[in-house]
Amino acid sequence: NIDPPVRPRSVERVAAFPRPGRSWLLFGALVLAVLIAFAGWRLLHRNEDARSPAATAASAGPVLAVLPLRATGDDPRGQAFADGLSEELIGQLSRVDGLRVNSRTSSFRFRDTKLSPGEIAQHLHATHLLEGGVRQDGDRLRINLRLVEADSDRTLWAQDFDRELRDIFVLQQNIAYAIANALQLHLGRSMAPTREDPVLYRRYLLARNSVRSNLDPGSALGAEAELRELLREHPDYARAWGGLATMLWARSLAPALGRDEARAEAEAAAARALKLDPQQPDAHAVLARRACRLQQWNECVTLSRRAIELAPSDPLFRGWHAHTLATMGYVDQALGEVDEALVVAPFDPGLHFWRGRLLDTLGRHDQAQQHLALADPARAQTALFFNAIWRKDYDNARRLVLSLPNEVPWRASELAAVAALQDPGRWPAVMPAIEISERHPLYGQVRYDFTRLLLPVRNYTRDIEGLDAVQRAGYASYQWVFWQPESRALRQDPAFQAYLRRSGLLAYWREHGFPTQCRASGDGASCD
How many Cβ atoms are within 10 Å of 118's Cβ, its own excluded? Predict the structure, then answer.
């Protein structure tokens, strides 16, 4: 807030001086108005910066980037093990009270960079860096680590470890204690000693970190096969069940044969993991997705929050939680969760996709476009198309549709809709294209073409039923359109009240609080 302007004494003196006259008074008032407006502009933009993830990171205490450990030695899978150990250190250190730790996706981006430590820290908004190497010779581990203060390039702590593989969990805890002590912080209460077979643990790290990228399905299937082999030999290994559950769940999101079976197996694996280890974060996250899909909102939110508590540096779990909150109407809170995740994962394309979608849902379409441009292009095609439509950039929307392969079912309906938005006389051609699109057999997806959202005369009952089914199928986020400013008429339709009751959202709101744009009204809710 800006205090009411006080008339400066210098202006008062000008007003009291007889010679300059009325024109000087007007000039002085104009200068003062410009200065006040400039000050207000600076304050506004400073407040906007303060809400950005980077500013949050800078003001929230130390932020640590764990760079991928370098593998030395002759073991061809040494780097996969080193990567796994790096990821485990990220998870362990994220439990230090008051310390934010960059996610794996952010830190590993700088594996082969020629940038200096200070430049890496600047890119990651980190105050400190942890770097080093690891070598395994049989059952012997040799690890060297160095903790660096980014601004001064000063080494705060360095140590070489020469231990047996069986001591790996004690070693990780010792490293966490040493870094917490160097930063004058304390270990969190969740920092408990781990009791696992270190040989199984190494096999798990090798399997999970053999995945080269999210865009390499062959690599992911190979890692999945290794985990299955591990579990055939050791069926009571909770960590491997949790890892398998997340891999299967990620595979179930693609429109491909067997996606329903993969999702069912993911949920069963997560349940097995949680039975073996109630603190298994992957299992909590996957079972949270199941509860959300079934619209069991209390269980969904509880499990989702628990996954974040157990793995605070994992941006995937926080992104899933944000997805849940937005689905339930808590769009502002969802944006806060994504911003929190971007502090430790500023380059994560998935988080930028979610932030773009959330900003579109809030009606901030120009800002949304900037984040969608940083997302995976294959994932963001539909989001970019609708963003262009909402910004009335119909030429760009048409270019985006033309870039789709001809076999994409909704390509023709989207092209017809763009043409009709520019020439209303073409609307009669849109509905037949939508109906053809919806007859196309899609694996596990709902027969609902999102192009219906653009029709000038809407069937809100059909839209609500379609978007509700999309949410329960769990493959897209377009049910968020319920909360957009452009959907006010939909929210006034009686079918929307029925949806709020049927989905359980109204009951959840009454127990936990209404989202920003809705309030209790009689036996229902009124949503602006």
Answer: 15
| pLDDT score of 49 | 36
| Predicted local distance difference test score (pLDDT) of residue 110 | 87
Spatial CB neighbours of 510, under 8 Å, sequence gap ≥ 6? 520
Structure tokens at 306: 């628990």
Tokens of 231: 């579990």
Q: Of 23, 32, 30, which is closest to residue 15 (Cα–Cα)? A: 23
Q: Which residues contact 430 (CB under 8 A, 6 or more apart)?
A: 413, 416, 417, 420, 451, 454, 455
pLDDT tens digits for range 116-125: 888 888 888 8
With the C-alpha atoms ordered 206, 210, 214, 217, is the resulting torsion angle positive or negative?
negative
Confidence category of residue 521, pLDDT binned at 50, 70, 90: very high
Q: How confident is the model at residue 168 (pLDDT cuts 50, 70, 90)?
A: confident
For 207, the token pair is 């399997």
Which DSSP state fits 194? -
Question: Which two three-digit tokens encode residue 403?
Answer: 């870039």
pTM of the model: 0.77
Q: How far, in Å, CA of 289 to CA of 326, rounded?
A: 14
- Mean pLDDT for the stretch of residues 90-98: 82
- Tell me the two tokens of residue 374: 């940083």
Compute the CA torsion angle 39, 44, 47, 48 (nearest 10 deg).
-140
